[in-house]
Amino acid sequence: MEENVSLSGEIKDMTIPWLFQGLNAEKKTGTVVCEKDETVKKVYFSAGEIVFASSNRSEDRLSEWLVQTNIISRQQSDETSVLFHKTGKKEGSILVELGILSPTAMVEGVQTQVKQIIVSLFNWREGRFMFDESPLPSADIIPLKISTGNYIIEGLRGLEWKVIRKSLPSLRTIIRPSADPSLLFQGVDLDQDHWAIFSLIDGMKSIEDICGLSGIGDFNTLKAIYVLLALRMVEAGELKTEEERKFVHEVVRETIPPKDEKSAEPTIARSITKEELIIAYKNLGWQNHYEVLGIKQTATVTEVKKAYFTLAKLYHPDRHFKTEMSEMKETLETLFSSIHDAYEILSNQSERDQYDLLLARRDTAKTSAEERERGREADSKENAAVQYQEGIKRFKAGDFWGAEEAFRWAMRLDSLNAEYVFRRAQALARIPRRGHDAEGYFTKAIKMAPERIEYYLELGNLYERNGLKTKALTVYRNALRYGPNTDRINQAIKRVSG
What we know:
Layout: E1 8-10, H1 15-25, E2 30-36, E3 39-46, E4 49-55, H2 62-68, H3 74-87, H4 91-97, H5 103-120, E5 128-132, H6 148-156, H7 161-167, E6 175-177, H8 181-184, H9 192-198, H10 207-214, H11 218-230, E7 234-236, H12 242-255, H13 274-283, H14 289-293, H15 301-315, H16 329-346, H17 349-365, H18 368-372, H19 377-396, H20 400-413, H21 418-428, H22 435-448, H23 453-465, H24 469-479, H25 487-497
Antiparallel strand pairs: 1-5, 2-3, 2-5, 3-4, 6-7
Helix pairs in contact: 2-3, 4-5, 5-6, 7-11, 9-11, 10-11, 12-15, 13-16, 15-16, 19-20, 20-21, 21-22, 22-23, 23-24, 23-25, 24-25
């Protein structure tokens, strides 16, 4: 996670927005538990997105909140409360059964209530928090459709000036756009003042300098800077070289949405269609990193970054929360992950050199006839087997990066082979900062071949190495359904439980 965000500790001024953005960046799944005095509020994350929240405060109960907003009467709330304690059913279900709310109105009410619970946390300045990576209680969750960034904006909207001023760094601090491009293209609804201030942030000016240039007053300027810092679109840091400064100028230009000539307001960025998503997803099966970004192999680092910015704005998952795009979530995640992987490798010269060497070896190994016949299933499987053997060879030699790339090609050429998926996960598990990707492919391999006990063992070992004993135990117990008498599974369960 960027900036070493802690997953437990004391709640202070910037704790909640930084924690939420960190979980979003790491695509974490689990529950943030916040406690203050007798109050406990929980926020549920799925693959980095906020999906639900709950609170033990009576004022935050659904029926109580509906009374406060004049949606139901006090009498209807009391009637619901009696049945809630008598039957144990959810208040929303009771309200629908009694005919007080329609199913649609109930869902909308729950979503708005949950949103208020989340937003209220941004006002907390004390208490404790922790992140629990246990599986989510999916039966109790009504998913929300809003980006983490927009929760942060709404939560910060009502903060008092003294809180904002206390949380800001020294006015002499030089600030720059975030070094993590994925944070710049998140789906957030910034207003004109925010974008105006962002356009002045170049890694050379201090906060004090920006206040003098903004033209909207110190108060509004500092509020906008506070929001940008909380969203992690901006960070403290000075740019010292001309190349860095030129690049930041390009970053700012690419990030800020163009203005509508008539209203002077930012125009809505072009949205990707389902058809375009499906085509782009299918193309991943044969594209290398250069082709994913749509650039030549001779592209400069600046050209690599420009291509990434353009695609990130189109495919960033945070930008697609419309109902009609909900079924495309996994496709978006896969596309954005591939785009981001390509960017990280091609923008790092040493990793790019290794990747170019791998491409050269692969191209040398293939004949022109094999290239022409790549689309045929039989040849694809044969080529996949070649890549698989190359991956095994590199894995045994300790070249996990090269092994991962070979197994990736094997997967692309024969996507139904669970062993290729598993082997790629094994390689990823041994590459720094790729544990989350490894987890995803281990899980996919298990779904494809649930009878393969070794797949469970490797995923469980990954969790154990990261201190996630509860998740490891769940995986090992699932394996017992296919191998109840397997000594290795029973030993693993004993080890984790002990």
